[in-house]
Inverse folding.
């Protein structure tokens, strides 16, 4: 009863209730319109025209076909929903904000930090090609003189974050999808309050939809009363609005420009297994010290200046540059991905790694909702003799998304991709490992939302101790998983097969 009362009194419940009510009103009105004989021809023609416009757009085929199917079944309703949620064409206001976001790159070019390296001189040809692509879209550069430490469990990352926050002297930058009141956040907040009193600048962003069920409404006002410069990213409004899809899914904490902590963990107790909801929560984290921190600092300041009120804007990025250089530990390239452009940096980086693999590609992801480009890359690699393994959870945090994940198994298993499910609980880490030479660790799930609708971030490790640490993490996971065979998948219950078909149809729309 207590959980039910908490649910129906929460902002998440009422926000989505009002959105669904509006969708219901739109649906009822348009269905009534479609039943009018004199408008039947109009609705059919409209459905054909909008379907054609969807078809000629440069979107993933699965995304287009799902919308076309909806439009052809219920033309006027489908067209309305596409214009609200599916059409990625931006309005005048959004175009201006997008231009401002990209103008920040020109105003504060990342080349102003003098220690970036030429990838052609330090990386292999395949690595250099990947680096050039990522750099061309995200302005991220390759750095050496960066010490990296990998944590296979976010439980291990937590005490290090607390320790580093205590050392802050100049500034703290924090950007997370979820903050939740509890042991983790209470410890962090106590330090932030104290650091503000010591004269340390604290800038903090949280995604409103990500934290809608874990933080009070307008929580940023409370944080500002402590002296923290806080921003609620893209506030969720209880109305039909295409911008509702654009979420800040990044997770990073930067201290004095010399330390960056990132990975899959959010600021909530379940991520460090202080609160158990879905079995053991398996997540990862890493810490960078030295030159390579700059990419994360630049990403934060760019999105901060895009999102924050005018009085919080940063005029000079150079004062946030690293001041400490570390010993070499391979080469580091951290990058950001944004829905404000037409490119999926993370997905294409993943595909580039898969295509360059000679021996193996191992992947860990909590969600597996793929477009044809990713499926083709994975199956081509497997058919070419590359050992392709994908690790997913056995216990879902969201049952509908879990159904979508399993719906993607068939084609992969049929073409030699091996799939393993993590038995102890929920596997939340997002990482790639290729041939013991390249690892990617970050926030991007292998699904449509992360690839196309979220602000994401990740770090590519070219050699160094982190690549070896990621391999050991995969090897340790292998002792805690169950392999899903193709025969087992084909023999699953009929109900699951039907659900899989429906899931594949609806996944691009979610």
């Amino acid at each position: 009863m207590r959980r039910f009362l908490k649910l129906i009194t929460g902002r998440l419940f009422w926000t989505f209730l009002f959105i669904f009510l509006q969708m219901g009103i739109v649906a009822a009105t348009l269905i009534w319109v479609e039943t009018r004989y004199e408008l039947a021809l109009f609705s059919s023609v409209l459905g054909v025209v909008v379907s054609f416009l969807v078809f000629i757009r440069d979107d993933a085929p699965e995304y287009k076909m799902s919308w076309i199917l909806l439009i052809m079944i219920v033309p006027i309703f489908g067209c309305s929903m596409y214009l609200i949620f599916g059409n990625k064409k931006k309005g005048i206001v959004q175009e201006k904000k997008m231009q401002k976001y990209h103008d920040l790159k020109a105003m504060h070019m990342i080349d102003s930090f003098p220690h970036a390296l030429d990838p052609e001189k330090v990386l292999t040809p395949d690595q250099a090609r990947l680096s050039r692509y990522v750099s061309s879209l995200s302005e991220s550069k390759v750095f050496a003189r960066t010490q990296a430490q990998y944590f296979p469990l976010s439980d291990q990352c937590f005490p290090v974050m607390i320790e580093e926050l205590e050392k802050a002297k100049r500034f703290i930058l924090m950007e997370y999808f979820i903050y939740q009141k509890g042991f983790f956040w209470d410890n962090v907040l106590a330090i932030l309050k104290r650091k503000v009193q010591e004269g340390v600048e604290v800038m903090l962003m949280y995604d409103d939809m990500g934290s809608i069920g874990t933080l009070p409404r307008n929580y940023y006002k409370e944080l500002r009363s402590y002296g923290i410069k806080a921003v609620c990213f893209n506030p969720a409004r209880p109305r039909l609005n295409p911008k509702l899809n654009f979420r800040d899914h990044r997770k990073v904490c930067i201290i004095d420009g010399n330390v960056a902590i990132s990975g899959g963990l959010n600021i909530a107790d379940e991520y460090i297994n202080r609160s158990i909801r879905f079995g053991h929560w398996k997540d990862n984290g890493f810490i960078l010290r030295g030159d390579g921190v700059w990419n994360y600092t630049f990403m934060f300041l760019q999105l901060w200046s895009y999102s924050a009120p005018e009085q919080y804007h940063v005029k000079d990025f150079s004062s946030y540059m690293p001041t400490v250089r570390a010993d070499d530990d391979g080469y580091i390239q951290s990058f950001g991905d944004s829905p404000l452009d037409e490119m999926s940096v993370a997905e294409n980086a993943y595909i580039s790694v898969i295509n360059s693999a000679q021996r193996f590609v191992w992947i860990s992801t909590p969600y597996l909702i793929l477009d044809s480009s990713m499926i083709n890359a994975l199956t081509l690699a497997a058919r070419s003799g590359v050992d392709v393994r994908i690790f997913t959870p056995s216990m879902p945090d969201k049952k509908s998304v879990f159904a979508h994940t399993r719906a993607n198994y068939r084609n992969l298993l049929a073409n030699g991709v091996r799939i393993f499910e993590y038995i102890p609980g929920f596997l939340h880490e997002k990482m790639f490992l290729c041939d013991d030479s390249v690892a990617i660790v970050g926030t991007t799930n292998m699904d449509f939302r992360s690839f196309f609708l979220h602000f994401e971030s990740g770090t590519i490790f070219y050699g160094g101790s982190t690549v070896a640490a990621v391999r050991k993490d995969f090897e340790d996971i292998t002792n805690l998983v169950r392999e899903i065979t193709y025969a087992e998948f084909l023999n699953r219950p009929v109900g699951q097969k039907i659900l899989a078909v429906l899931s594949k149809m609806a996944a691009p729309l979610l």
About this structure: Residues 11-35 form the longest helix (25 residues). The longest strand covers residues 454-462. The chain is about 45% helix and 20% strand. The mean pLDDT is 85.
